[in-house]
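Dear H.,

Thanks for agreeing to be a second pair of eyes. The structure we're designing against is below in token form, covering all 491 positions.
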């Protein structure tokens, strides 16, 4: 049992004590007359130091602060140790602030915990020591302060392993726990222009989409997940090759195929906040710069519907001059973002979405501009089964699947349309009959709303309307005012 393992044997301890005592006696008797008092004291304490039996244990003291800043090891230990609470623990502290999702549990002062790392036994102790400091200006008035620290005790011979690998392990575990508990934020631009420009406003991001609930090609899903994983673990690589630690994704596909849901799934997976940058709301270059600089580390910057250029007649320089001639492509915007972000060295993701990849500035599609192009497409049989499993909790076979899959091969339907039908009833038969009706209707009416020909027609009509000065667009979206390729603007 701890801490007796590898202790020196009682006989060796006894002989150590005996030789120390003998030496001290000898020095005392010789020294009493011959050696002056201060030197005698020094000699005795040196002898005591060298002959004192050595403890086989080492204790690391992990204080709460290092100078002015927090000690990350202390914070990590606090979080990590609440996962190690044993039945022997007698006192714990428990709390919850309004913004936290879960209860916070911490060790109470004086509590001890035993942990094991690669077979090594470690004893943790949380200490709160009250210290009293005299006030130099008022001797009757002393200040009490609390010093909090952890003591981590183990056998000395394991020092290297504990310092090099266990502490690192505790830091990583604590980060993972913190990430799990983290409340994600969705930042959007507030519309009211205040004296210092447009600002980010945040709400909790409670979008339930995850990679599990998303109907998408399994290979594509795995490729996206792998890409995200690789990105977040390659900080050193980006630094070495001198690139901003940034990854760009272009999501394209018809409305209702899950582009926005995929962004939410990425945010939930990585525990990254989302910043929804509505370009139409930004009137000054200086605002863009300020907003980009105000985005936090570990975040996803989203620019939706980039094929829809935005009309920004009053775009101004920070100094108030109107900007007539400067035009910047989206790829120019990307360069600008690269420049800003490369100096901060933090991990950032940027996502563009479009319903019409074919209408984008070719410069944006060039290799190296957006790192991954992800096609979110109409629902296929696999996607349908994924939706049925999510919405109706059916994982096996259902007698209506055959008919539905047959119909799906003959018409195009988006996951959003299928999802809407599946939500209409809790009775699987009724909901699936609804899907069959939808598919038959679409087939009969030739209602291929998202058909390419129709899309082109709609685009032509849109362009005509825009010439007439109308600004139509699906509700709640940025306003389409030009048939694009370039967005007028910026910098
Ligand atoms: N691939 C999908 N998997 C699961 N649900 C989906 C999927 N696509 C769409 N949905 C459902 O449809 C709703 C709308 O989808 P979403 O907003 O993600 O589509 P979108 O591609 O972003 O459309 P738009 O181009 O109009 O922005 C979602 O809230 C979700 O419930
Ligand atoms: Mg969307």
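And this is the sequence the design step returned. I haven't edited it by hand at all.
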């Amino acid at each position: 049992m701890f801490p007796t393992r590898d202790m020196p044997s009682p006989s060796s301890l006894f002989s150590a004590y005996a030789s120390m005592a003998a030496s001290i006696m000898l020095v005392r008797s010789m020294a009493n007359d011959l050696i002056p008092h201060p030197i005698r004291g020094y000699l005795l304490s040196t002898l005591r130091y060298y002959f004192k039996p050595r403890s086989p244990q080492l204790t690391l003291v992990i204080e709460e602060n290092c100078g002015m800043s927090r000690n990350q090891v202390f914070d990590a230990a606090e979080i990590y140790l609440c996962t190690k609470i044993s039945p022997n623990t007698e006192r714990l502290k428990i709390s919850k602030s309004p913004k936290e999702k879960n209860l916070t549990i911490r060790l109470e002062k004086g509590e001890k915990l035993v942990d094991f790392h690669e077979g090594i036994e470690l004893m943790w102790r949380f200490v709160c020591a009250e210290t009293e400091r005299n006030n130099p200006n008022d001797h009757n008035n002393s200040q009490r302060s609390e010093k909090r620290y952890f003591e981590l005790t183990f056998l000395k011979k394991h020092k290297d392993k504990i310092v090099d690998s266990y502490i690192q392990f505790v830091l990583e575990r604590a980060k993972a726990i913190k990430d799990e508990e983290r409340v994600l934020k969705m930042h959007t631009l507030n519309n009211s222009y205040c004296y210092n420009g447009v600002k980010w406003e945040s709400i909790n991001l409670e979008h339930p989409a995850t990679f599990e609930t998303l109907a998408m090609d399994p290979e594509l899903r795995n490729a996206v997940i792998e890409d995200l994983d690789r990105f977040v673990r390659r900080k050193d690589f980006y630094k070495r090759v001198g690139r901003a630690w940034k990854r760009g994704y272009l999501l394209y596909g018809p409305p209702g195929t899950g582009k926005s849901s995929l962004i939410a799934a990425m945010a939930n997976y990585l525990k990254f906040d989302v910043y929804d940058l509505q370009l139409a709301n930004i009137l000054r270059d200086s605002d863009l710069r300020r907003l980009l600089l105000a985005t936090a580390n570990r975040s996803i910057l989203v620019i939706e519907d980039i094929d829809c250029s935005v009309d920004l007649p009053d775009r101004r320089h920070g100094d108030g001059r109107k900007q007539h001639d400067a035009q910047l492509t989206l790829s120019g915007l990307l360069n600008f973002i690269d420049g800003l972000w490369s100096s901060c060295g933090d991990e950032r993701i940027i996502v563009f979405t479009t319903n019409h990849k074919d209408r984008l500035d070719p410069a944006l599609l060039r290799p190296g501009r957006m790192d991954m192009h992800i096609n979110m497409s109409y629902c296929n049989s696999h996607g349908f089964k994924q939706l049925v499993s999510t919405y109706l909790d059916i994982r096996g076979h259902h007698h209506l699947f055959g008919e539905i899959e047959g119909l799906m091969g003959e018409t195009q339907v988006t996951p959003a349309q299928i999802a809407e039908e599946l939500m209409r009833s809790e009775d699987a038969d009724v909901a699936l009959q609804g899907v069959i009706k939808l598919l038959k209707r679409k087939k009969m009416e030739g209602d291929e709303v998202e058909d390419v020909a129709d899309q082109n027609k709609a685009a032509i009509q849109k362009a005509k309307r825009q010439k007439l000065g109308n600004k139509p667009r699906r509700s709640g979206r940025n306003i389409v005012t030009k048939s694009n390729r370039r967005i007028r603007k910026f910098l």
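Two observations from my side: The pocket of magnesium ion (ligand 2) is lined by residues 259-260, 304, 353 (CB under 6 Å). The first helix runs from residue 10 to 34.

Warmly,
E.
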